[in-house]
Amino acid sequence: MPSVIVNNVKINYIEQGAGDEAIVFAHGFSAAGGEWKEVLELLPEEYHAYALDQRGHGQSEKAGSYELADFAEDIYRFSQELGIGRFTYVGHSMGGPIGMKLALDHPDVLEAMVLTAPSPALGMEMADDMVAMMQSMGFADIATAMKSMFSSPEMIRGFMAMMFVTPPSEERMNDFVDYAIAMDPGAIDGCWAWIMSPELEPRLGEIKVPTLIFAGGKDFIPLDATRRTADGIKGARLEVFEENGHMLHMESPQSFVELLTDFITKVGRR
Fold first, then answer.
1. pTM of the model
2. 16, 146 contact by CB (below 8 A)
């Protein structure tokens, strides 16, 4: 797996294709670039894709800081180091706030932004049944739950099972367990501090990048919270995968890729 040094951190990444349309994929919390396997396999040949292991995740290095600005700046510096030029950013879950921050700080590098089951700009919310389940397990708050859930492979597997409506193969579930085990424990506190924060919501109106947002109709993130993020970004389009959960891009990769590439094509024609 190739790597590049950005902001004094070695970032590993998957690279695929050599077309003119560049896409940078950013995974969710506790995952890695391999999260996008199903999507990458279906991308047409005219796309040049990069799927990063973000700082403290996957095979990339641990870092001393896990602020939102660090992650957004990593994406920007990554594109500059590799000479990618303008690109479409595709971020999942915690990759949502990272994309919003990138669009605010470096809009010049973005052709478009696609947020997939994004952590809401108003701060993380969870569906009532998910909250009730965590409380029944003895967790007083989400951050505490995250620390406990990543304490063993069995708990990681249980946490990941909640992300899907249609369970993945055993092989793919094992991949996600491996990703979570590889994560720097320091990233749990660092990332959840801003995933839970509403700091981005007042600035959504400043985002001018063409934006597409995907939501799972059965995601643990309430659809109303995702709609509020979409409503705050002028011209943002929301597509709901009614029968999918948080990992909608893995559960329905063909539909995901079709909508993604159609959106990129239409943005390019503007």
1. 0.93
2. no
